[in-house]
Write a structure and sequence with these properties.
Layout lengths: L1 E3 L13 H10 L2 E6 L7 H8 L5 E5 L13 H12 L5 E10 L3 H4 L1 H21 L3 E6 L2 H10 L5 E4 L5 H9 L2 E5 L9 H9 L5 E3 L21 H11 L7 H15 L7
Parallel strand pairs: 1-2, 2-3, 3-4, 4-5, 5-6, 6-7, 7-8
The structure holds zinc ion.
Zinc ion binds next to loops.
């Protein structure tokens, strides 16, 4: 069984075919797909979608790129949504949260401060409710790590990991796994491919980030959660694991996901 640890299955790019996507992935052996939320607006959407298939579960959080349009009291609404979701076994983490410094306007000034405020507040919610976090980390590895050292949460996943080996080591020390997906399928992604090949296998989880980060064979068409086994084959190739051992690779990466998202075993 494979696990897609990061998929925006509620996205409009799927043209309403959300459940068909989940079923197509299940037919390919994707036994679980984690749906992160991005803003208060879509909390109800991801939880309702996850309720409709056995291979879906969800997280609740405010994505760094949605912080600018979020209201101050959205953090309180997130807290209320978490309290409500706690009895639901399909609710597995706080996410997607983090810091995105890709665009210059986000690197400084009020938008940067607001991102840091929302990130810290959401880490505190994860700590309060003893929940793992799904992290969006773009040009922000060291600051993400700085806050993780201050506000200790029970680990989680650094999604679409694209840092150094040293930063990878720091995330692992703090109880995190690192998400690898479509980016690893491009020959020019030298650093990501080196990480995927050389990091300890128990640090790695798989993800699509669908409909984004399409693998090389789909690009620029939208990505789908049923691509996970083929992405897993790329990981096997990079690590020189024979394809006859693909089932073991699926099992190992899925066990890694379950280790950091313990509620997955209940859902
Ligand atoms: Zn995402």
């Amino acid at each position: 069984m494979w696990i897609d640890t990061h998929c925006h299955l509620d996205a409009t790019e799927f043209g309403g075919q959300h459940l068909e996507q989940a079923d197509a992935a299940a037919a390919q052996g994707v036994g679980m797909i984690v749906l992160p939320a991005v803003a208060v607006d879509n909390f109800a959407t991801v939880s309702a979608l996850a309720a409709q298939r056995a291979n879906l579960c969800y997280a609740l959080g405010i994505h760094p790129l949605y912080v600018a349009q979020s209201a101050d009291d959205d953090l309180e609404r997130l807290r209320e949504a978490i309290v409500q979701a706690l009895p639901d076994p399909r609710f597995v983490a706080v996410g997607e949260i983090g810091l995105d410094f890709f665009i210059p306007e986000l690197q400084q000034g009020p938008l940067r401060q607001r991102q840091e405020h929302f990130y810290q507040a959401q880490l505190k919610l994860a700590r309060e409710f003893d929940l793992p976090v799904l992290l969006h980390v773009r040009r922000s590895q060291d600051i993400i790590l700085k806050y993780l050292r201050r506000i200790s949460v029970p680990g989680g996943i650094a999604h679409a990991f694209n840092g150094s080996f040293q930063q990878a080591g720091h995330f692992v020390e703090l109880g995190f796994k690192l998400g690898f997906g479509g980016a690893m399928t491009f020959p020019r992604s030298l650093q990501i491919r080196r990480l995927a090949a050389q990091l300890p296998l128990d640090a790695i989880v798989l993800e699509t980030d669908a409909p984004d980060i399409s693998p090389a064979w789909l690009h620029p068409a939208p990505n789908h959660p049923d691509q996970i086994p083929r992405i897993g084959e790329v990981l096997a190739g990079l690590r020189e694991i024979p394809l006859t051992q693909l089932a073991q690779l699926a099992q190992a990466t899925s066990a890694n996901a379950q280790a950091v998202l313990p509620r997955l075993t209940r859902s």
